[in-house]
Amino acid sequence: MYQVIPKPRSITSLGGTTLLRGDMRITYAQEGLGKLGQLLQGEMQALTGLELRCEEYSAAGQGQAILLEVDSSLAPGEYKLEIAGDITVKGGSYQGVSYGTVTLLQLMAREPAGFKVPHCVVEDRPYASYRGLMIDLARKWHSVEAIKEIIILCRWYKIPYLQLHLTDDESFVFPSQAFPELATPARSYTLEELHELERFAEARGVTIVPEVDVPGHARSMIAARPDLFATNPPQGNVICPGREGVYQALDTLIGEVCSVFRATPFFHIGADEVEKAFWEACSDCQEYMAQKAISNVDELYRHFIVRMRDIVHKYGKKMFVWEGFAKEGEIEIPKDITPRGGVMRLARIPLRFVETLHPSKRGYTAFHRGVHRK
């Protein structure tokens, strides 16, 4: 009966419908919801042609209203939508209210008299706190407009995280100011474009999670700055973890990326599919291992991950990695690092990765075909 995606935990019919009219108001109880109210105003105009007013809530307001409100009694991603003449959307956070507004839009039905919504109470909360989609920008370049389309899809499917894979063997798309030569010509974005995407996503309750893939998958970085990142002698697509200058450069890069993507609590460093054999032949790695009493290249890999964790943590983020290291080792991997792994190929739909973290399992679901414009 109700076409809502994803299916809510609870929908209770109250009987009857409300006809949406041009004199209805969108009101918000907290100032921080103003941009969400304006977003809903634009979406409703695009879908229905109605030009609703958007204003801060006032008890003296006249006429029917759509009220947006953060309710601290609800969990952060939880929402409650009540339609009975007036329409109330409550959420435990900006994101929760955002989910409720999407459900309201999904409930609209066109009839000869106009657009109607059913009288009902919808209550929902996520089964997993992390639900994400990934775009591989380094392998398949996407225009800014295409990324915005995907952000809109994230909003409509209530997916809170969008991971951007910014670096790989094929290209480096982040516009580093400290190392401008790293940006792949004709395939990188400007800082203004990335700031715009961050604002666009934040307004829609979507958090962008950046990924800088190291120490493997780094051929483009090595080609641009072999003096800084290459092993000694240069070989393969792995950076050298045996020089302090490499860690200093990565610290600078991660800081630059974090200064753009401020909203995310997470930062992904990739760290999978590392050809550690190249470190066996690297004189700098061997010297570094001797100085640090690191027994072998597997432990050097774990050492690198720990140092990256410390850098990421310094910028106030929690570190994600792809699964690539053994569970047991001499160097302990901090428990606050979240590994990902386990690919299931399910269907040919135009989304690159959909990923969930569930209490009972960790992993991601990958789909075959990417959304791209180039």
Descriptive notes:
By secondary structure, the chain is of the alpha/beta class. It folds into two domains: 10-124, Chitobiase/beta-hexosaminidase domain 2-like (Chitobiase, domain 2, 2-Layer Sandwich), CATH 3.30.379; 130-366, TIM Barrel, CATH 3.20.20. It contains ten helices and 17 strands. The strands form three sheets. Strands 1, 2, 3, 4, 5, 6, 7 and 8 form an eight-stranded mixed beta sheet that branches. A six-stranded mixed beta sheet has the order 11-10-9-16-17-15, with helices on one face. Strand 2 (25-28), helix 1 and strand 3 (53-56) form a beta-alpha-beta unit. Helix 1 packs parallel to helix 2, helix 3 packs parallel to helix 4 (191-203) and helix 7 packs parallel to helix 10 (297-314). The protein is elongated and about 75 Å long. The protein starts with 9 loop residues before the first strand and ends in an 8-residue tail after the last strand. 38% of the residues are buried. The model is unreliable at 342-374 (pLDDT under 50).
What is the compact description of this entry?
The chain is built from ten helices and 17 strands.
Describe the SSE topology.
Layout: E1 10-19, E2 25-28, H1 34-48, E3 53-56, E4 65-70, E5 79-84, E6 86-91, H2 94-107, E7 109-111, E8 114-124, E9 130-136, H3 144-156, E10 161-165, H4 191-203, E11 207-211, H5 219-224, H6 226-229, H7 244-260, E12 266-268, H8 277-280, H9 283-292, H10 297-314, E13 318-322, E14 338-340, E15 343-345, E16 353-358, E17 361-366
Parallel strand pairs: 2-3, 2-4, 4-6, 9-10, 10-11, 12-13, 13-14, 15-17
Antiparallel strand pairs: 1-8, 5-6, 5-8, 7-8, 9-16, 16-17
Helix pairs in contact: 1-2, 3-4, 7-10
